[in-house]
Structure formats: C-alpha cells, structure tokens
Amino acid sequence: MFDHHEQLCIIDRWSQFAQVDCSALTVTKKPLRGSCMPAPRKYPPELIERGVRMVRELRRDTPGRSGTVRQVGEVLHIHPEVLRHWVKKADAEADEHRGLTNAETLYLRQLEQENQELRRVNGILKAAALLFAAELEEGKSTSND
Predict the structure, then answer these.
(1) If you write DSSP's letter for every residue of the chain in order, what string do you get?
(2) Are 61 and 89 found together in one domain?
(3) Does 94 share its domain with 62?
(4) Residues 55 and 83 in one domain
(5) pLDDT at residue number 3
(6) Considering the domain boundaries, does residue 145 fall inside one?
(7) What is the pLDDT of residues 29-40, one digit of tens each?
C-alpha cells in the first residue's frame, strides 16, 4: 500500500494530468513537508561533462583497455555505473547528431525498399512451396489407395 506522502503525490500528479480539481479528496494523515518534486541531483552537470570527457579521452588514447569508467569514477568520486550511464547516454546523443548525408539517406532508403520487396517475394515463395507440398501429399495419398 502507499504511504501518506505517496498518496498525496499520486493525487497531485493525477489532478495535474486530468486537469481536475482534487481539493475535495482528503487524506486522513497530516501531510509531510515538501512537495512531490524529485530529489536534487547528486552530481552537478559540470562533473557529468568532465567525467564523460575523461572517459572518452582515455578510451581514445588507450583503445581496448578495460576499466576506464571505473578508473575515472574513482578519480572523480562517482559511482562507476552512474558514470557508465552518462557515457552511454552521451554516445547515443552524439550518434543522433552525426546524421547522414543525402546520398547515404537515399541509398539507405533504396536498400530498405529492396529489403521489403525481397521479404514480400520470399513470403509468396513460402506460400507456393506449402501449396505444392500439400498437392504432392494429396497426390501420394490418392495413388496409394
């Protein structure tokens, strides 16, 4: 079950989402101080950027070396899994911004269309093979009788 604070948070969020006045809803216990806001971030954004930059530099300078995230995490006093998450997220964002040229986009589109057509033809061939196999079985069973 939800504790008192969680109940208040759910009512507050639901009323904002549904745009409904929930002032008539009452909870019997005295509310806790504070709001339903998330906890403040443990690490400042500058530290996040620095950690990601250091991991990328170490990986670039010594490719194939394991433990770079742990090593940087120890230096900056950041939990390695948190740092690994930041690096992974930053890498994904960098890949999004990289983009493709117009020629690459056109070529990719052509390959996708060709792939779609091949899948369609493959489906037709599979259906035909099943049909012919059924006819062969039917022919064998009538000839054996």
Answers:
(1) ---HHHHHHHHHHHHHHHT---TT---SSPPPSS-SPPPPPSS-HHHHHHHHHHHHHHHHHSTT-S-HHHHHHHHHT--HHHHHHHHHHHHHHHHHHH---HHHHHHHHHHHHHHHHHHHHHHHHHHHHHHHHHHHHHHHHHHH-
(2) yes
(3) yes
(4) yes
(5) 63
(6) no
(7) 454 555 566 667
Name the domain count of the chain.
3
Give CA–CA dist 54/86, Å, rounded.
12
- Which amino acid does the sequence have at 18? A
Instruction: Say how many C-beta atoms besides its own lie within 10 A of residue 51's C-beta.
Output: 23
Do 76 and 113 sit in the same domain of this protein? no
Q: Are residues 49 and 81 in the same domain?
A: yes
Q: What is the model's pLDDT at position 137?
A: 87
Residues 122-139 pLDDT 10s: 999 999 999 999 988 888
